[in-house]
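Following up on my earlier thread - several people asked me to post the actual chain instead of describing it. Fair enough. Here it is, all 379 residues.
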Amino acid sequence: MRFEPGVKAPKVEFGYWTTALKRFVREGLPVVEPLPPDLPDNGTVSGAEQVWSGDGVVIERNVRACLGLDPYPAKFPIDVSPRLPEKVLEESEDYRVYTDRYGITMKVYKKGTTPPLDLAFPIAGRADFERYKEHYPAAGLARRLPADWEKLAPSLRARDFPIRLGGFPFGFFGFPRHLIGSNQLYLLMYDDPKLLKDLNEFFLRFIIEYWDRIIPAIRPDCVLIWEDMASKTGSMISPAMFQEFLVPCYRRLIDFFRQHRVDNILVDSDGYIEELIPLWWQLGVTGVFPIERQAGNDPLAIRRRFPRLQLLGAVDKRVFAAGRSEADIEAELGLIAQLLPTGGFVPHADHHVPDDSSWPNFRYYRERLNRLIDDSGPG
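Reply from S.P.:
Thanks for posting it. Predicted structure:
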């Protein structure tokens, strides 16, 4: 990702819907390690390695073995929740209603691919926030680190696979929305902007103190700020709101990363992000993920405007769908072939591979992309 001359892009995939992998097996994917039998259909499986044995992350090994893929940067398991006890409020054969460790009440269906439905959020106003903060005592940071941290950290620093720090649900738009809900968040931007600034200030200080224990110990390959702050038509907030609510926190967090010599600072946002990229770039963000094509993002235009911006993703996952042709896949890869020589590009599906993807199409795409990577390098 550092635009080094002669270094080729890694051969990776971010992850898969559980149902996509089950379909791939039915359609001929060789199995070297069966998926856990209790894996829910509305779940996802990572294309990364486990950070350590027993970290609870389900890893995909069959596609990687068949297609010769490298591991994706593994998410270091952090805990930014208030560590509340989970409470089941209602349960039937079809669904479960419960309150999670963040205090979010949601309804989860036990069958099918329907995502969880958020029913209630822990923060609606100032009084809720003041109570919420009490669950983040400074003395409790050590309990947020893995067991046997003093022994584990040196082994992780000597690892042979990439690690990223951050991701869902932490960001300066993403985390408030996670705790407050979209509708109330937008109202508070007008009705109580100081509350949102105080919330971001509190969690910024928490993250800096927390990650200050992790970054020097393991030297992550990259950090990821999760925002998901765009839809198909563009940013969910105006540039003025970005400036007011996000910029001060971004500046301080990125300064913290620079002090620790973290070079790769990525932002994760679905949707159309081309109007947000200049705002992130001027703050010191070095890359974006996943560059969703169906939202209208044009990776070639982004590369022309930002030749040193790291790009992760950008392959339109819709071309893997059953019924699409090899010609459709070749057309998509023609765009990718133009980006590969520019460097700083990690091509893969523009989010989890969905279950309308057929194994023959996905295999054809991935084998062709692997050959393109083998034949290409930064200029």
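The longest strand covers residues 310-315. That should answer part of your original question.
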